[in-house]
Design brief:
Blueprint lengths: L1 H13 L1 E4 L1 H19 L5 E6 L3 H8 L7 E8 L11 E4 L9 E9 L3 H12 L4 E10 L11 E6 L4 E2 L15 E3 L4
Parallel strand pairs: 2-3, 2-5, 5-6, 6-7
Antiparallel strand pairs: 1-9, 3-4, 8-9
Helix pairs in contact: 2-3
The chain binds 1-O-pyrophosphono-5-O-phosphono-alpha-D-ribofuranose (PRP) and guanine.
Length: 183
């Protein structure tokens, strides 16, 4: 256990903070105004993509001053790894999706496979509309065709953790967004 704590503390000590708390809050404020303009009269269902979407979803919905419902979906393709593979569907929303305006919130749009698959699945459930939001868009040319409707900020192509994103399951709780040394 001591080894693990030492290793994790070293990772954090050596990491670069790419987006600090102030920048995250500015990004969330901007996203919240855009979402309010589009969805405030739609009684939307907000779907948090677990686990990474937990913290961004909480921070975003407290900025939305209109009636909405909240549920979650759990799909993961990275697990404890830094490279994504196939998407594993772990949990589906319990709320009825038919004729609902749905806002999906996640922490990061990397290659886009996760959000693309979730959007496609939601459309197949008879939703009226599906909007997608992520705090981070990672910059590279390995993307799927879709683009999230609301993006907080662009970040360089390194392995990130903090603010929902994990390093080996840890550090989702950090208030900033960090990149691992050498990534
Ligand atoms: O755009 P993509 O390349 O598909 O990657 C983005 C996804 O990867 C992360 O989830 P992960 O699978 O690590 O699960 P987690 O949310 O439990 O960390 C993140 O939370 C997104 O859902
Ligand atoms: N923690 C973490 N999860 C991811 N999922 C997709 N890209 C990333 C990343 O850079 N960091």
């Amino acid at each position: 256990m001591t080894n693990t704590i030492n290793e994790l503390n070293k990772i954090l000590d050596e990491a670069d903070c790419l987006v600090d708390e102030t920048k995250i809050n500015e990004a969330l404020d901007k996203m919240a105004s855009q979402i309010t303009a589009d969805l405030s009269d739609k009684l939307p269902l907000v779907l948090c993509v677990m686990n990474g979407g937990l913290i961004p979803t909480a921070a975003l919905i407290e900025r939305l001053n209109f009636p909405l419902e909240l549920d979650y979906i759990h799909a993961t393709r990275y697990g404890m790894e830094t490279e994504g593979t196939q998407l594993n569907w772990l949990s589906y929303p319990q709320t009825s999706l038919k004729n609902r305006h749905v806002l999906v919130v996640d922490d990061i749009f990397d290659q886009g496979h996760t959000l693309e698959a979730i959007q496609k699945w939601l459309e197949e459930q008879g939703t009226s509309s599906v909007h997608t939001a992520t705090i981070i868009n990672k910059l590279h040319d390995r993307k799927t065709n879709m683009q999230p409707d609301y993006v907080g900020t662009d970040v360089v192509d390194r392995f990130l953790f903090g603010y929902g994103m994990d390093y080996k399951g840890y550090f989702r709780n950090l208030k900033g967004i960090y990149a691992i040394k050498g990534s």
